[in-house]
Write a structure and sequence with these properties.
single chain; extended
């Protein structure tokens, strides 16, 4: 209980919470716009049902992804060591994600420069 009190008094925790809330609001609005654009292409009688299914699917997927992130954060046990540096599954996942983003950005830059 003491850790929770310390966390509640930490301004960095409140800033992180506010940032996460802002991101969730922006992503939620983005999902609504995307689903609305897609469902407007459907016949009138199917739109309402498609919107409900799309929003429910987005909510379930977001909860699954948040749960997965919570699991990944806890994967801190060392898997192997290289040059005295221990690597956990979390480290490997973060490295793989970072390399993917670098590859994707490089691919986009090259596509824009040399179409």
């Amino acid at each position: 209980m003491e850790n929770l009190t310390v966390l509640m008094l930490d301004p960095n925790a409140w800033i992180a919470l506010a940032t996460l809330i802002a991101m969730e609001v922006v992503l939620g609005i983005d999902n609504l716009i995307f689903i609305s654009v897609l469902t407007n292409k459907l016949p009138e009688d199917q739109r309402d049902r498609a919107r409900k299914i799309g929003i429910a699917g987005a909510l379930v997927l977001r909860l699954l992804l948040l749960g997965t992130i919570a699991i990944i954060i806890g994967l801190t046990d060392a898997v192997f060591t290289v040059l005295g540096k221990a690597f956990s599954w979390r480290d490997l996942i973060l490295i793989a994600g970072g390399l993917f983003l670098v590859w994707k950005a490089t691919k986009e830059i090259h596509h824009n420069v040399d179409p």
